[in-house]
Amino acid sequence: MSDEACTIITVDGDEVARCRSADTGRAHNHQPRLAIVHEAVVPWTEVIAQQHVETGARRSVHEKFIEWTGQRMVVLGRYDPGMIIERHAHRSDHLIYVLEGELACGEYPCPRGTLIVLEEGAVFGPLIADATEGCLLFETWLDDPTPVSVDKPGYNQLLADNKHVRLPNPPFTPPPHARGKFGSGDRFS
After folding, report:
1. Domains of the chain, with CATH numbers?
2. Number of CB atoms found within 10 A of residue 4's CB
3. 10 Å Cβ neighbour count for 61?
4. 162-181 burial, b if ≥16 CB within 10 A, otherwise e?
5. Per the CB 3.0–4.6 Å rule, which of 2, 22, 91, 168 could disulfide with 144?
């Protein structure tokens, strides 16, 4: 079954089996995957950092890169309390589901159980995590997840008004299973 149409089954990134693929009547990947990933085996990666000027507290966004291919990216995102992300868009559709805590999306409160659908090119934010508990998000992007900044001066003013300083992006190495492109520039808004 090596080159014929088949489903490739992986568990935590390792191929464990192959089986026949279904004919869906549409063109699709010749060898589609059934990928099973156990969140517990995926490490948290700090991707954005800020510091509160008065307290010295570091606030970060940490992500678990559960799936990263040329077709999609899926992450769990943990935003520390009070974390601020600039208004931005993405180069592909982006879905966010709030699992825990609350996220403000501009003037719109998004408590646990909220789905945010951001179509390619649509702008949202700023995103501000709840000041006491932060939030935990399930996020997906199609193909290119690169953010597109739309108001860097406004973001810098918002950080200053809230006594936050944006720290340099933490060192970042894509996970071994990452197979997609990620664009260039400020990789996380």
Report:
1. 6-36 (no CATH), 40-166 (2.60.120.10)
2. 10
3. 23
4. eebeeeeeeeeeeeebeebe
5. 91
